[in-house]
């Protein structure tokens, strides 16, 4: 029996309809996610990618084009323009299209293959220790979060282990309800908070995007 779901949020409906509002909401959420999760460690991510490229350059110089795919998918081999995977999982026929290796620190599963006719084959594979990589000089997570969002908004997010009203947040932060409302509106617009009304009160909750840096 199908499960009944509530109506899709307005921004999702806007995306489906091709409206600009939905795309603007998604773009704000992506910028907020980058600023909170990736920006503090982006230099480290770039260093890890450079190390991956150097490793493959050495593999190509020492073992030729066949070495890199075999190293990424143990048991596979590149032979006659065909990349054969172990276990009869199938073949990826390059046919002269070329192979793009895409190391990613966001994915820890098996290599992912994008095989679009007429375009180079793209292989995304897990590399390095994963994210979030924490450089030694990043400092405490609390300080890093405050550096991105500002001290008051970072404290507001940390004051939300569960849903809380504007009045409760104002008491926890030692500020006025009006000031808290302004901050929650900004965080909600960035996709870090959701707000639900219950009677005369509104309850604020963290979104999954906001939970990542707090962990």
Provide a short characterization of the protein structure.
The protein has 215 residues and is of the alpha+beta class. It has helices at 10-17, 20-38, 42-63, 67-72, 141-149, 151-158, 166-173, 177-189, 208-214; strands at 77-79, 82-84, 91-93, 99-104, 112-114, 121-126, 164-165, 193-198, 201-206.
- Rg over CA atoms, rounded to whole Å, is 23 Å
Helix-strand pattern, N to C? HHHHEEEEEEHHEHHEEH
Number of strands: 9
The rough form would be described as: elongated
Low-confidence stretches: 129-138
Query: Strand order of the main beta sheet, please?
Result: 1-2-3
Strand portion, in percent? 15-25%
- Quaternary status of these chains? single chain
Report on the biggest sheet.
3 strands, antiparallel
| Structural class category | alpha+beta
User: If you average the pLDDT, what whole number results?
Assistant: 76
Provide a descriptive summary of the structure in words.
The protein has 215 residues and is of the alpha+beta class. The chain has 9 helices and 9 strands. The strands form 3 sheets. It has a 3-stranded antiparallel sheet. Strands 4-6-5 form a 3-stranded mixed sheet, with no helix packed on it. A 3-stranded antiparallel sheet has the order 7-9-8. The two termini are 37 Å apart.
């Amino acid at each position: 029996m199908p499960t009944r779901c509530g109506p899709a949020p307005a921004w999702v409906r806007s995306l489906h309809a091709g409206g600009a509002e939905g795309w603007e909401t998604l773009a704000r959420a992506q910028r907020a996610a980058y600023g909170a999760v990736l920006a503090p460690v982006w230099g480290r991510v770039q260093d890890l990618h450079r190390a991956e490229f150097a490793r493959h350059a050495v593999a190509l110089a020492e073992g030729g084009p066949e070495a890199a795919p075999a190293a990424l998918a143990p048991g596979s081999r590149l032979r006659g323009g065909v990349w054969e995977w172990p276990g009869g999982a199938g073949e990826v026929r390059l046919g002269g299209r070329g192979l793009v290796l895409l190391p990613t620190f966001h994915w820890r599963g098996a290599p992912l293959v994008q095989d679009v006719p007429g375009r180079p084959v793209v292989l995304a594979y897990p590399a390095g220790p994963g994210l979030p990589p924490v450089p030694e000089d990043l400092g405490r997570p609390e300080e890093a979060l405050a550096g991105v969002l500002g001290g008051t908004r970072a404290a507001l997010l940390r004051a939300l282990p569960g849903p809380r009203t504007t009045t409760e947040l104002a008491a926890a932060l030692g500020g006025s309800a009006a000031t808290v409302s302004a901050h929650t509106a900004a965080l909600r617009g960035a996709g870090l908070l959701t707000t639900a009304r219950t009677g005369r009160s509104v309850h604020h909750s963290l979104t999954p995007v906001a939970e990542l840096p707090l962990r």
